[in-house]
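A reminder from the course coordinator: this example appears on the midterm review sheet, so study it carefully.

Given structure:
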């Protein structure tokens, strides 16, 4: 704890003194009284002991305040039991059982939503984050699977299928028939395109890595 109990007690006494006229002795007593209360509260908190059992009026007031506004029992780093005022990270079914309640009955009694987690906000958030990460993991796994399936379908198998019959595809499909390469003049003969057109198509296909030059003026498909 960053602030000592003494400092807290002094702050409480100072707050009291700011509201009422107090003698030096009264202030001193107020500090002592606040300190004693804080020590007991701290001990009760450390022992996870129900505050109600400590028998402090402050604790009773605190519990009454929580009961008047049950949602406040769920705090950032702890959750208070609205039956006895004990604080926990998670309000367990086992503890509620000691009050003769199930979690469902407890939520209903204190008008907490049916989905309200009976745990500190930080704990619930962490649980949500974990669930989210797990959910994300599932999605990633699913998308990897889909991608793998797609690659299987459109990968090497499809590469050997004829390209859409554009002029370029027509040239390349013909080149594919010649495992040892084919000359430009043969391609001109086969396609009926002029030499310039065939050269242009071959040149682009070379750049795209679809063809390779096997000899001067002869090409084959990759
Ligand atoms: Zn309790």
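Designed residues:
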């Amino acid at each position: 704890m960053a602030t000592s109990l003494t400092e807290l007690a002094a702050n409480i006494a100072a707050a009291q003194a700011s509201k009422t006229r107090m003698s030096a002795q009264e202030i001193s007593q107020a500090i002592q009284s606040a300190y004693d209360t804080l020590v007991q509260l701290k001990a009760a908190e450390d022992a996870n002991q129900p505050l109600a059992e400590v028998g402090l009026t402050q604790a009773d007031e605190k519990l009454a305040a929580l009961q008047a506004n049950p949602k406040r029992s769920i705090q950032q780093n702890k959750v208070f039991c609205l039956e006895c005022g004990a604080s926990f990270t998670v309000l367990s079914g086992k503890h509620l059982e000691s009050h003769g309640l199930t979690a469902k009955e407890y939520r209903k009694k204190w008008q907490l939503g049916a989905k309200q987690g009976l745990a500190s906000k930080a704990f619930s958030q962490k649980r949500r984050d974990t669930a989210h990460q797990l959910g994300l993991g599932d999605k990633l796994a699913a998308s990897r699977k889909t991608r793998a399936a797609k690659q299987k379908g459109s990968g090497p198998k499809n590469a050997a299928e004829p390209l859409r019959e554009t002029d370029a595809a027509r040239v390349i499909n013909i080149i594919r028939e010649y495992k040892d390469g084919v000359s430009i003049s043969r391609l001109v003969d086969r396609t009926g395109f002029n030499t310039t057109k065939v050269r242009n198509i071959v040149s682009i296909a070379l750049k795209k890595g679809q063809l390779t030059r096997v000899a001067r003026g002869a090409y084959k498909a990759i």
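The domain at 158-221 is CATH 1.10.10.10 (Arc Repressor Mutant, subunit A). The chain has a mean pLDDT of 81.
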